[in-house]
Design brief:
- GO terms for molecular function: alpha,alpha-trehalose-phosphate synthase (UDP-forming) activity; phosphatase activity.
- By secondary structure, this protein is of the alpha/beta class.
- Helix content is 44%, strand content 20%.
- The chain contains 17 helices and 18 strands.
- It has a ten-stranded mixed beta sheet, sandwiched between helices.
- Helix 11 links the parallel strand 14 and strand 15.
- The longest helix is centred in the N-terminal third of the chain and has 21 residues.
- Bound molecules: GDP-alpha-D-glucose.
- The site of GDP-alpha-D-glucose has 20 residues, from strand 13, strand 14, helix 12 and helix 13.
């Protein structure tokens, strides 16, 4: 093997993501409390992290903190500290105001600022250095998402001994859009430092490979890209889709708990026992099509095709990126639309839209899924959309109708949902009415097929297939194959 040129650590499996899977909180007495934040990625990687003695590198969620590495629930946590200025430029700026809108087909217009790019490079380097200092010789390092696209190359240059994977959780845009990015070549170069680059959809992987051909002219064969090295050889890089999923059994287990079922009944009762409860659950983000959904619902009430006596729309909009200007404007737009619609259609006893700008505990989310007859996922663009899969996993009763945007990655798998184009308001209105009126037999038939898909392709299967593509023999050497059941 090649002699590592940088300091090396002791971990054979290292995960790098912008956010750590723990939340930092300060107790009233000034001491630090760490709370595990129950994201999908943690659930997916937890067993593997424990059995392989893995380390997780990431930002702890507060600016200017100075925290030493520590262990949480059997996982080693390595905090990367960021200043308030870096957060503004690297996270709110380049990640969320440049890359996020660009990669979501410019639904909002991306800003291009040279200073925020510089911060992106600096912060990516800090993450890469933390990863290197943790990774043992020959370790597997799995880097996540659009905030850290330069890390694979930084790792490869300093530590050619590492096996490097990258997974992009959001879409990768078509070349015509990607080409707008002033740093388009640097980002591709950064990603091509990985051995395997994973995407949600087949189309994302194709878009990436086409961009590599256009901007670098490297030869590609199917999922393989031959990347030239300094020594006039080529390195084989795989760019392939690995659709992410959820801990389906975990969701079903929660849904079967008597107290959660009781809570679901209570929710319906508190809403005035409408015939139909329609639900939307999203981060308050302009990619999620919340405004389009509200427009369609409002028109259905205005047309008299639905009535507030029978139908309530519950919209959970969890607070998100509240420091970014476009998100502040979005919140105003959505809340104006909700307020208008409720003003026009609600009665004293029936509210048209029950709107909540809150985050809820996961148990409460599961109870809402159980309480909802129709689930609306109307994203204008979405890497995957886990909410769609969670709804399906929860519905062990075989009931419930999923209305799903074609522009969410989940639509590639969840074919038995009612698929919609959220830009087509008439089409969306028809789909909602169809969902509300669907006979029980059809609901069950569709839900059964959807559930089969989600349970057969759960998050454990996702991480296993990514890591086996990454490793071939390397994961076996590193001793992480046992944890995968290989
Ligand atoms: C990115 C990509 C891709 C939401 N509100 C609450 C809450 N949630 C949970 C949901 C779900 C998760 O957050 C959101 O995941 P999504 O996939 O729907 O969307 P993004 O946040 O945009 O995620 C996306 C994903 O990464 C994974 O690769 O699917 O396309 O954009 O799990 O249930 N959870 C709780 N309270 C809330 O109020 N507990």
């Amino acid at each position: 093997s090649v002699e590592p040129a940088a300091p090396i650590g002791t971990f054979t499996f290292v995960v790098v993501s912008n956010r750590l899977p723990v939340d930092f909180e300060e107790a009233p007495d000034g001491s630090t409390i760490w709370r595990t934040s129950p994201g999908g990625l943690v659930t997916a990687l937890e067993p593997l992290m424990r059995s392989s003695g893995g380390a997780w590198i990431g930002w702890p969620g507060v600016a200017d903190c100075d925290v030493e590495p520590f262990e949480n629930d059997g996982i080693s946590i390595v905090p990367v500290c960021l200043s308030a200025r870096e957060l503004e430029e690297y996270y709110e700026g380049f990640s969320n105001d440049t890359l996020w809108p660009l990669y979501h087909d410019v639904i909002a217009s991306p800003s291009f600022h040279r200073e925020t790019w510089d911060a992106y490079v600096t912060v990516n380097r800090r993450f890469a250095e933390a990863a290197m200092a943790s990774a043992a010789e020959g370790a597997t390092v799995w880097v996540h998402d659009y905030q850290l696209q330069l890390v694979p190359r930084m790792l490869r240059d300093a530590r050619p001994d590492l096996v490097i994977g990258f997974f992009n959780h959001i879409p990768f845009p078509s070349y015509g859009i990607y080409a707008q990015l002033p740093w388009r070549k640097q980002i591709l170069h950064g990603l091509l430092g990985a051995d395997v680059i994973g995407f949600q959809r087949l189309e994302d992987a194709g878009n990436f490979t086409r961009a590599v051909r256009r901007l670098y002219g490297y030869p590609t064969r199917g999922v393989v890209i031959d990347v030239p090295t300094d020594t006039r050889q080529t390195r084989r890089v795989v760019a392939k889709h690995f659709p992410i999923s959820i801990d389906a059994a975990g969701y079903e287990e929660m849904a079967r708990r008597p107290e959660i079922q009781a809570r679901a009944r209570q929710i319906r009762e508190d809403l005035g026992n409408p015939k139909t409860v329609i639900l939307g659950v999203d981060r308050l983000d302009y990619t999620k099509g919340i405004g389009h959904r509200i427009k369609a619902f409002g028109e259905l009430l205005a047309d008299g095709r639905l009535s507030v006596e029978d139908v309530t729309l519950v919209q959970i909009a969890s607070p998100s990126r509240e420091q970014v200007g476009s998100y502040m404007a979005l919140r105003d737009d959505i809340e104006l639309a909700v307020g208008r619609l409720n003003g026009d259609f609600s009665t004293i006893s029936h509210t048209a839209i029950s709107y909540h700008h809150h985050g809820y505990p996961r148990e409460e989310m599961v109870a809402m899924f159980l309480a909802a007859d129709v689930m609306l996922v109307t994203a204008l663009r979405d890497g995957m959309n886990l909410v769609a899969k969670e709804y399906v996993a929860v519905r062990f009763d075989g009931d419930g109708v999923l209305v799903l945007s074609e522009f969410a990655g989940a639509a590639d798998e969840l074919k038995q949902a009612i698929l919609i184009n959220p830009h087509d308001i008439e089409g969306m209105k028809d789909a909602i009415v169809r969902a509300v009126e669907m006979p029980r037999r059809d609901r069950t038939r569709r839900m059964r097929a959807l559930r089969r898909r989600v349970f057969d392709h759960d998050v454990a299967a996702w991480s296993a297939s990514f890591l086996s593509a990454l490793s071939g023999g390397a994961a076996v050497k590193a001793g992480i194959s046992d944890a995968l059941g290989a």
